[in-house]
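Data availability (excerpt). The following record was deposited with the supplementary files.
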Amino acid sequence: MTDLFTSRIKNLKKILGEKELNSIIILNDANIFYLTGFHGINSGSILLITDDSIYLLVNFIYLEKAENSIKNKGIKVVLYSKDKFKKLNEILEGYRFNSVAVEWENISFKNGYKLKELLSGQGKKINDAGGLVKELRSVKDKEEIKKIKDSCSITDNTFKSILKLRPDDIERLSEVELAFYLEELLIKGNSSGKSFDIITAYDKGTSMPHYVPQKRYINNGIVLMDFGCRFGNYCSDMTRTIFTRNNKKCNEFKKIYDIVLKAQLKAIERCREGISSGELDRVARKFISSKGYGENFGHGLGHGVGLEVHEEPVINKGVKTILKENMVITIEPGIYIKNFGGVRIEDMVIVKKNKCEVLYKSRKDFFIMGL
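Predicted structure:
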């Protein structure tokens, strides 16, 4: 594992060299973990990488964890007490280079201004590092893919457990209770917990893509579940739309369900290295639009998944990113009709040279649990 993190830092330094940058300040916790093995959540840590040195600045809360996590002897763990940017400034005073790249998207305006003022006192200016590390993270290595597959397997098994329930079992639960039950199954499945706030929507609530579960009891109808977990710090993300019993809405829902499923299968068939994000999105969007529901598919087709549940690449219309082998993305078209309901079907896939590998095995055809 030490060699893995060392290799990632080496790859980053190569890119920095190509851009004629000799130092970078990293503030995103997921990026820091990717490069060092230290995992914090909203930790306030700073990773400084220069040509010849690497410093990880942490506060006391994370000091022991950082010291235990980092096996690379070339990384110096530095304790800061109150002002991390002042400590960072002290370290940088020992270097003669006149510019530093900063993950500008991960710093507040207030702290950015403060850092700029401190470094200007040394005659150093700030360059925007952009998404250099996030771009590196978008292509997964073997270790990452293994953990992502394990995370997806737990999620898959959780949904299979839901399918073993009777309609009566689900209809005893409110949306909130179903969300907590899914989380319980994910944890019992050996995950470290949910990867995002679980969405469980019943009936008309399914028309809102990021619906917040309510204390509303499920009763004879459609249920949309968007859930996932973390395993080894890597995320999974799945959506399934199920029907607990046959009712008067089922035939109408089946129509849009079949359109969404066909759109997803068409996108999965076209997903491979070399296709652009925008083109892949267009495959599903064009089909849904041809059936008269283009205005009811208002979000992108998908997104990257890894250390974060939403990361690069973005799969949406107009995005020119070219997909590469071993990127891991979601493919999740949907149709949402106000005051009626909606359908979304989401799988995670690994991009391959001539195809993609779907990471979920559980069923996604239209079916009614009561039959």
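Summary of structural features: The first helix runs from residue 2 to 18.
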